[in-house]
Amino acid sequence: MGEETTSFTHRYVALGDSFTEGVGDWDPRSPNGVRGWADRVAEQLILADPSWGYANLAIRGRKMRQILGEQVDAALALKPTLVTIYAGANDILRPSIDLDALLAEYDAGIARLRASGAAVVLFTGFDSSKSAVFAKTRGRTAIYNELVREIADRHDAEIVDYWRMREFQNWGYWDVDRMHMAAAGHTLMAARVLEVLKAAHSIEVPELEARPAATRLAQLRTDALWARDYLGPWVGRRLRGQSSGDTVTVKYPELTHPVWTKETTSP
């Protein structure tokens, strides 16, 4: 690992859950069958400067303590110069949560990452006010966001302000499961992250086609199918103490160039 790590001048390591793993941005070329905004950010960094290496340690379904316990040490071993981390979304969806205690642990994890010398990028949580199912978590997310902002200020970390990105209120940016961004959403997020990093990029955010308004009956049918195919299984896993990531492995555990950049760049 040491030789492979030091062969890259710049080292980007992405940490988190399904958001960072790339769920919703389906791509059979990619490990786990998903690409995602972090892979797209890495691609732009590498295309601009092949001395960048990239690792993505995120796994869907992970809660904050799992991310801190499983991913922070692994990230530090890769000697990162840049870390992105988003943790806590899966905790917010649980029946009960002690946000103050949880974010105190997050603060300690971010302190360790910053102490390594790496630049760190954090995310606020998404404003779910337009979601019929997840709108009730809006208040928790708002508190989470304020605590994350304090952590960012304390440790001189950057913030990608997902909460204020009103574009994502357009459901065209979301996958059919209504829980994860689709390819268009991940593409837009990659552009926003690169803007925070002040990095030039060639990402073109796709224009969304206007969707005709559905009749009430058609919407009810669509909602019923969604509840059967996505909401029901999601609730069932939680009742059984299971996670969608239980059998998933890390996409890029070592620093590399993503598969779609290898024809144009080399380590």
TrEMBL record:
GO terms for molecular function: hydrolase activity. Residues 14-187 form the SGNH hydrolase-type esterase domain. Signal peptide: none annotated. Transmembrane segments: none annotated. It comes from the Bacteria. Keywords: Hydrolase. The keyword Electron transport does not apply. It holds the Pfam family Lipase_GDSL_2. This is SGNH/GDSL hydrolase family protein. It comes from Arthrobacter parietis.
